[in-house]
Amino acid sequence: xxxxxxxxxxxxxxxxxxxxxxxxxxxxxxxxxxxxxxxxxxxxxxxxxxxxxxxxxxxxxxxxxxxxxxxxxxxxxxxxxxxxxxxxxxxxxxxxxxxxxxxxxxxxxxxxxxxxxxxxxxxxxxxxxxxxxxxxxxxxxxxxxxxxxxxxxxxxxxxxxxxxxxxxxxxxxxxxxxxxxxxxxxxxxxxxxxxxxxxxxxxxxxxxxxxxxxxxxxxxxxxxxxxxxxxxxxxxxxxxxxxxxxxxxxxxxxxxxxxxxxxxxxxxxxxxxxxxxxxxxxxxxxxxxxxxxxxxxxxxxxxxxxxxxxxxxxxxxxxxxxxxxxxxxxxxxxxxxxxxxxxxxxxxxxxxxxxxxxxxxxxxxxxxxxxxxxxxxxxxxxxxxxxxxxxxxxx
Length: 395
Fold this sequence. Notes:
Distance between the termini: 27 Å
Number of helices: 11
Number of strands: 21
Organism: Spirulina subsalsa FACHB-351
Protein name: Lysine N(6)-hydroxylase/L-ornithine N(5)-oxygenase family protein
CATH architecture of the largest domain: 3-Layer(bba) Sandwich
Shape: globular
InterPro entries: FAD/NAD-bd_sf, HpyO/CreE_NAD-binding
Pfam families: NAD_binding_9
Radius of gyration: 22 Å
CATH topology of the largest domain: FAD/NAD(P)-binding domain
């Protein structure tokens, strides 16, 4: 790619797709001015892989949350595909959402916009072209661009201290599990975590012939959504945006999300297999140590009890810490920003300092609130970023 780009979007997930469609709605002729960089070379590869690997049947988000600018586009798309919404709030099935996103990609002519490159570093050009950036990848020449939008997820799993340096095929993070490929019949599986991912892993493993113990340091929380719907509008966000102390904002985000939770439907499924003797729920329990015992793991809990299992999966989330993210660390080198509990303090247009680098997703939570990482957060980020891209004077 010899010609400099105007806009480079790094990440071809749902947020990157949301930004591309919202930008092209405002500036249809800008398609040639932007490219999207993702190691897979295709849209939504990681998203789709994770849904398939955990055998997740439907989304947690309602039908109005998706990458198209028209909030009703998914409902219109589903009119010829009945039976793909789950109550309440018409949550779309995995298949419907995938088909819809493919239709969105085609309608906005974005199939050929994704470049198969993993961007590892961003460097500002010096001299007369100081307003431009070089994007570096392991393969290929550096790419020069005027503006960058980071549509990234977290890259580092959150490991409990007792699991560090013990990871392998039979001790892994939830992101590494692919239920479709594992011979689980007759095995004992322990899952640590209390969120929806832990629930999907438990149900999926039991469906494949395993018995499961689910360990959670707190009691299981049952909520339909990650956060209260009031965080999608001014009811809760007004107070959040009026708060000028970043540490207080971070704490408001933690309180709103309050750790992992299960949907009512998932809790019903877990209670069902629990009654069948296929699942043991161990709430208010913490693992304190872990040792190998032949081909199994021996797990020591804080209540004095021990367990043995064939596989141990940690559904303990991921780190939202810019200091630990390979690409964001390079930004800290060229334009250091204050970090609050790992999250960058961006400006009102989600810009990284005084650069022309913008940030979406959970990394923009201090500005957008607790739903920043969700599908709804992608639209909220576009409301901030797109005006600044269209009118550079705003940035």
